[in-house]
Amino acid sequence: MESSIKEYEGKLPKKVLNDIRAQAANLPQAKLKKVLELALGEYKKALVCAGESVGLISAESIGEPGTQMTLNTFHFAGVAEMNVTMGLPRIIEILDGMKDINTPMMEIYLKKPYSQGKGIRELALALKETLLGEVASEFSLNLVDMTIDIALDKEKIKDIGMTGTQISTAISKQVKSVTIKDNKEAIAIKMKGKDDSLNDLYKLKEKLKDVHLKGVKGITQVLPVRRGEEYIIITAGSNMNDVLQLDDADVFRTTTNNIFEIEKVLGIEAARQAIINEVYKVIESQGLNVDMRHIMLVADTMCTSGTVKGITRYGVVSEKSSVLARASFETPIKHILNAAMLGEIDELNSVVENVMINQPIPIGTGMPRLVTKIGAGSKK
Amino acid sequence: MAEVYLNGKFVGEVDDSAGYIGKLRDERRKGIMPSSINFYLDKKSGRIEVESSRGRARRPLIIVREGKPLLTDRHIKQLEKNEISWSDLVKEGIIEYLDASEEENALVAFFEQDLTHEHSHLEITPLNMLGYCTALVPYGNFNQSTRLNAGSKNQKQALGIYASNYAVRMDMDVNLLHYAQVPIVETIMHEITEYGKHPAGQNIVVAVMSYKGYNMEDAIIINKGSIDRGFGRSTYYRPSVAEELRYSGGLMDEVSIPDKDVKGYRSEKDYRYLEDDGIIYPESKVAEGDVIIGKTSPPRFLSSMEEYNLASSTRRESSVTMKHGEKGVVDFVMLTENEEGNKLIQVRLRDQRIPEVGDKFTSRHGQKGVVGLIVPEADMPFSASGIKPDLIFSPHGIPSRMTMAHLIELVGGKVGALSGRLINGTTFDAEPEDKLRQELKELGFRENGVETFYNGETGEQFDSQIFVGNMYYLKLKHLVANKLHSRARGPIQLLTRQPTEGRAKEGGLRLGEMEKDTFVAHGASLLLKERFDSDRTIVPVCEGCGTIAIRDEYKEKTYCPICGENTEVSNVEISYAFKLILDEFKSLGLYPQMKLKSKY
User: Fold this and answer.
1) Could you give the CA distance from residue B434 to residue B449 in angstroms, rounded to a whole number?
2) Domain covering B235-353 assigned CATH 2.40.50.150 in the classification
């Protein structure tokens, strides 16, 4: 039995073969052969024909429903101003491969005690990033001594569970070349060396406001929510790398909506899947119905080079081999002039170029050609 | 202390801002201060803003004191007798104009019976909130506001009698409705604007039912008999203008029948309607290509040689002719001068526009639709009393649009037509529906307006009863005859050799980027190529240098501008637009080459 299945390796995909193996294990040889033959027939029927313009069909299939999408952002009920870019702006964000997305977000899945909801509030708050500027009630410049006096808000410090000394050590770790004097409720900071100008002092003050005290960098808001049977933490702001190193995070399911972070941390295949998931999420949320395979094709084109590239003139389009095709997209003059300088040759292999010069496009009925071999009698 | 601002600039402070603003307003009402000033009191801060600048939208209201309007019956009687005028009321401080900010301090009652001691003003009429055109919609308070907007917009496009002196006017693009009527269901605005002097519609019998699917998606069915009796007939007028321009060197245009040796002479047949002065005679029936005003112009560029030899043979023909697809009758010819003293000829053409499939009609409630079918009168459904509707309107247009006034007008029109009187349908102040129903019942009809109807073709009675009544219908200026357009071959642009654009230029219908995509998606490669063959050209290409070679048909030789005659030249089929872009590259100093190889 195994031998006859082996024959079909390469002809049928692995998953189909495994299914047959599991379900038709006890069939006699002749019947198994027939099953395999039928499966192959069905498989071939489902394959896309050569010359089918899959890319354009994908573009139309995503683009047409895209015209009906609203420009809404979706607001989380409760918790101060947690919203997510949705609809067309989000699609543009993903497909253009934008590095800085409007609303970075994470979904942090948790390990056992926390996933049941125990102590999840405290864990969430511990994740939230706290900066010095948030707990200080006042930053004042002492122009006589050239120091910065930071008055700390007692209650806020209590809330985050830190002491004045801990804060001053945090400052000393992150801001170099300063001397720190800690008098319980206020911290005085003086710059080391040189005659400091007032300007430098101002700059230092701004720098001090961004001193990281606690939590995961980049996580600005946290929201524990129930997702089905378990509890997860949704955050505004994203930092995949640091979050995955937390002991309590379920590293297999925790995700972010920042595709480039996924690419950096988990690799290009994960990024491809992330693109598919994110685009599909938007399309689904708008109540539209687009076949998954169209989105997969788009994600594939964005990822084939090994890094995520947007569908822009700097990304995927710049990769086209044809000058005319690139010029017909955006900034034609730039492309034509560069091509002239390099002496580029356009092989006219793709669709756009052939539409331009009014030749049959190499797709569908334009693919097959009739060739007549002229016999030896007439020539040669 | 409260701040006082005049036109946004700080001018001082007052102690008692509420008392102060009261005094200010009193002085304005007494006429001590101009009535065009407005005062606004910010009740929170006590800040007073005085506005006297131009460009504020203001509206008149009746002043109320202690729950009583200052406008009394005495005033109204005086007004009716023409003893006093509107401006007297403003001067006396009975009516005042408020701007948007002072309105914030006012409490305005809609009706007199609503007045309390808190009210400061009384609305003159609730109709006040509507514009002229919107006030023309009957029973407007029963419609959704968006429909009122649409209704008033539609009325502006309606054909009617736009001016009484139309016969001597030379307006561009004019339509005149032949048998315009005053609506049976009217509003007070019809009276105020003297609508009877410039009516724009007709009262017709409308049945609300579907008809063989020809009135789906807002289409309407029209009775052929009604058209024959004059419904929706109009005339389209369009002037043709020619001017005798003066050029440098004392040369000028000449209006006359062009000589045969003039450059660009048409055929004798085209000039057949022209009289001796070169202008067409009235009531001649003209069609495409006929000359309306014969005119010749001096040659465009004079070489020094020709300047001494001003023979008429060098003049060129510049007559005004009928454009593609146009026809009509010459209605009126006018000769005048323009500001510069040049001779100016205007010829007005007229053409009858009988309603046809595709013409746009509407009621006054934003219920517009195009004619879907014109049914012979014999086939129209008819009521038990033998009434055949002029128009069939689809019931599917009602629920989603919620134009209740459309239905009320139908009943109102029925009552008015049967009892021979006009129905007052003024918004907020109309004859109540109950009364209309009651009257309809007394006239011997079902009070809800439905009637038993019979199929016009088979004579069978319809299962359901049909809602019929009279309505005021408008013909809108979007007529198919002015828009219909098609082309197979035709004019092309000089630069790109692609078809021209637009109906006026007999242009092609563009197969655009997205339409192109659909061919690609179907893999219909060769069909796509054929569709884009409109600017196809065959160019000789030099295989040596890759540039476009030159074909000299006279010498029957082909040669390359670079390589000369001793080179292989092949004919290649490309779009002219691509040849053009290659030329543009060359003009930029780039050297585009075409490297030829066999396709197979």
Assistant:
1) 12
2) yes
Supply the pLDDT for residue A195. Answer: 62
| Residue A336 vs residues A318, A342, A359, B578, B585: alpha-carbon distances, Å | 13, 10, 21, 14, 9
Q: Could you tell me if B179 and B355 are in contact, meaning their C-beta atoms sit under 8 angstroms apart?
A: no
Across the interface, of A53, A345, A359, the residue whose CB is closest to B529 is A359
Note whether B578 contacts A357, CB cutoff 8 Å. Answer: yes
Predicted complex: ipTM over 0.95: no
Across B326-342, average pLDDT: 91
CB contacts of A365 in chain B (<8 Å) are 523-527
Strand partners, B369: B361
* Three-state DSSP string of B166-180: HHHCCCCCEEEECCC
Q: List, in sequence order, every residue forming a beta bridge with B122; answer none if it has no partner.
A: B62, B109
In this complex, do B521 and A56 lie within 8 Å of one another by their Cβ atoms? yes
Domains of chain A with CATH codes: 2-46 (no CATH), 55-103+257-315 (1.10.1790), 130-214 (3.30.1360.140), 320-366 (1.10.150.390)
CB B528 within 8 A of CB A355: yes
Closest-CA distance, A315 to chain B, in angstroms, reads: 22
Taking CB atoms and an 8 Å limit, are A363 and B520 in contact across chains?
yes
A291 vs A295, B2, B288, CA distance in Å? Answer: 7, 66, 54
Q: What is the CATH number of domain B2-124?
A: 3.90.1070.20
Nearest to A358 among B524, B536, B599 (CB): B536
Q: Which two tokens stand for residue A2?
A: 């195994």
Looking at chain A, which residue has its C-alpha nearest residue B532?
Answer: A358
Candidate list B42, B88, B218, B277, residue with the active-site label: B218
Which architecture does CATH list for B140-168+176-232+357-475? Beta Barrel (2.40)
What are the sequence ranges of the domains in chain B?
2-124, 140-168+176-232+357-475, 235-353
Phi and psi of B15, rounded to 5°? -80, -55
Digit-coded pLDDT (tens) for B424-460: 999 998 999 999 999 999 999 999 999 999 999 999 9
Annotated catalytic residue B218: yes
Contact yes or no for A243/A254 (Cβ under 8 A): yes
Contact of B375 with B222, CB cutoff 8 Å: yes
Q: Do B526 and A337 touch (CB under 8 A)?
A: no
Contact indicator for B48, B20 with CB cutoff of 8 Å = yes
What is the torsional sign of CA B81, B87, B91, B95?
A: positive
CB contact under 8 A, A365 and B525: yes
Asked which of A152-161, A338-347, B127-136, B566-575 is least confident by mean pLDDT, the reply is A152-161
Q: Return the pLDDT at B312.
A: 44
| pLDDT above 60 (res B224) | yes
